[in-house]
Amino acid sequence: MIYRLLYMFVFFSLSSAYAQFEVDHFNGTDLINDISKLEFDREKSSVRFFFENDSIYGRIKNFEYDISFQPTAPENSYIRGTASVASLTTQNILRDHHLMWESYFYKRKHPYITFNSSQIIDFGSQVYKVIGWLTIKGITKEVIFHCTLQEHSLEGKTVIYTSDYNISIHDTREKNKLLLTFSFPFISFPR
Predict the structure, then answer these.
(1) Looking at residue 39, what is its pLDDT?
(2) Which of 19, 40, 76, 132 registers the highest number of CB atoms within 10 A of its CB?
(3) What is d(CA 125, CA 189) in angstroms, rounded to the nearest whole number?
(4) DSSP strand pairing (39-40 vs 153-161)
């Protein structure tokens, strides 16, 4: 009987200690410091845009990205991505087709949109600025994504003006304002 009680005491003590280790070790702090080993859910990832002047929402369906992100050492991190212009959709087939023409995205000559980060800056509280080069229609401009590390995803947003990329939907720059966002959910956490 004493052996059974001793066995139960040791078993529950070890179980409790392991459970506390799991809570302490995987409470988010160690996980967030090792995000470079996270797997992203590419099926649920999204790149979306909102053309403010005309209240048009859209998304890019076909894109690839490569992320190495170390929140405690953002200077060693990077985000790169490539998106297919042909996969751009606004849920209006005529408008989408029209956007592929030479006067807009000119898909035949410039089939991809690319982004390459040059610097990632930590602003604390899981907020980062990702500075990099966005190329659309063969024109490269520096942009700054405002990013947050959420519990289950990396989220980012920036504002661009399509006229800066020789895509002038309207006559004035301000009317060509576009909010660009991404969401990259995590699949699993390193253990």
Answers:
(1) 74
(2) 132
(3) 20
(4) unpaired
How far CA 179 is from CA of 8, 26, 112, 152, 159, in Å, comes to 59, 34, 19, 22, 5
Give the chain's residues under pLDDT 50: 1-31, 190-191
Mind giving me the DSSP string for 90-116?
A: -S-HHHHHHHTSTTTT-TTT--EEEEE
Residues 140 and 71 in one domain: yes
Which domain does 86 fall in, by range?
38-188
The pLDDT of residue 186 is: 85
- The full length of the chain comes to 191
Alpha carbon 79 to chain centroid distance?
A: 8
Contact 45, 184 (CB under 8 A): yes
